[in-house]
Amino acid sequence: MPSRTLAALAAALMLAALPPAHAAPAAAVRYALSVTAHDPASPPRVHVALEFSGEADGETELILPQAWGGEEHLWRVVRDLAVEGGGARLEPGADSARRVLRHAPGAALRVRYEVVQDRAGAPRATGRNPYRPVLQPGFVHLLGSTIFVRPGLDDATLVSFAADSVPAGWSFASDLEHAGPRHPLALGSLFECVIVAGDFRIVRRGPAGRGLRVALRGEWPFSDAEFADRLERIVRAHRAFWRERDEPFLVTVLPLAADPGVYSLGGTGLSDAFAFFATGATDAASMSRVLAHEHLHAWIPNRIGRLSEGANEAGDYWFSEGFTDFYTFRLLVRDGLWSLDDYARELNELLSRHARSPVREAPNARIASDFWSNADVRDLPYRRGFLLAMAWDHRLRAASGGRRDLDDVMLDLRRAWRQGRGRAAPLATEALAAALRRAGLDPTPDLERHIVRGEPMALPADVFGPGAPIETFQSSEYAPGFDVAATQAAQGVVAGVDPAGPAHAAGLRNGMRIVKRESGSPGNPDVELVYLVEDGGVERRIRYLPRGAQRFPTQRLALHPAGDTAARERVRRIAAGER
């Protein structure tokens, strides 16, 4: 198919945005991306070029994608790496993700390579988000951390980006388009991006150049407009809380294929975008929580402080993920996108899952080491941080007679970050501890007990005030009664049925094929599982409560009856953080 040029349009828009008598900072590295598709039935091809001046000593390091988001060996997506200019030649580097360029001192260099999809097939629900490059007939989905080769320069080095071409009739969207004279693009920011092209539908909300864009493809149970409207409410609520002006923000939505009965919902938050991945049957209400969580990452921790580096980063996720979840819940209630019953249901689900976690008492060191390799460990910092935020919010309100709460601490962190711009960003967890102490709360004992050592944490019974207690009861373990992973690997053919479990008692047997799951909440033993299965050519329904023999002490919020509107409103105001 013929290509259309975007570079001229992008240049014109950037010139139009220039303030009078000011010039855009010069880019030290210039990136260009092109997408070509000559056969509609074949995957497109993606090429990247970067131009920059080599080091004065005649030796420049090139760094290929390495590991990100649990994905490894990302250098495999880079093919046909080549360099031109200054007599340059490529030599092996210290490892598979590094190359060394030998060239004339300070030479103008041009590096070219192709990005490929290194895993077969369209993106599927596998329990992990598809972060690696996706190049499929009719579309591409790319994340900056997984596709860009970079020279070994400082992260603050200014760069430019242009989409040189995409096939005629294709849409294109990237948060890299948000860069401009007032928001120059740094080399480190280049990797915090998403790029989509193809049969994506682009929906816009808010002021031109400072509003929201949503890029979707596939079919969903809601319209594009309904989804964009819902997301715009979330974005506006967050900006109101943080007292921020409108800024451009991009959401991409990629549907995942799935086996019968398999549902997946997830995303990754970037600095001014997030990439969303879900199976097509996902409802808008379920998406709201993920959308709100990912959008809040624009502030927590990105505009508060930095996380620990390298392997220690996951050790800070109790703050970056747990506090983000706490504010996701709070602001969804405050904005009216969640009712009090929605909040109670989600909170009780969180409390129930945390109580039954097999790694509930794991120390924080295990989270730092096993976050990407163990699903139970991966969930732990979200829940621990959420409970810690709720407990600290309660203590701040109680100590101040309701005049102060955790919101004041978070806004204090945001102000400190603004005032410190131009200096090195503080470690977010240290900045939080300092802000809590300024508010009269010493977090050290709680952090040592519940984060570092992993001791279980219980919410105060009166965290929502008198008359709406947090109750403690004994809950059952979640026991689906068969090997879910093996069944998924066998394309829905049931495997590993426990003869002493609830599934066997309900009639499920090895060798049956799951057509679809009609009901159930994986991880929740109190929601009935209903499977439509094929058994010897005949379809039948298997239904049961997935309860095992083990019991766990579990907390839950006991709401007032629906008719007690005054009491319920008091609880709603605390949940929403309203004074």
Automatic annotation (TrEMBL):
The protein's name: Peptidase M61 catalytic domain-containing protein
Keywords: Signal
Provenance organism: Eiseniibacteriota bacterium
Lineage, broadest ranks: Bacteria, Candidatus Eiseniibacteriota
Domain (Peptidase M61 catalytic) ranges: 289-364
UniProt cross-references to Pfam families, sorted A to Z: Peptidase_M61
Signal sequence segment: 1-23
Gene3D superfamilies in the cross-refs: Neutral Protease Domain 2
InterPro entries per UniProt: Peptidase_M4/M1_CTD_sf (IPR027268), Peptidase_M61_catalytic (IPR007963)
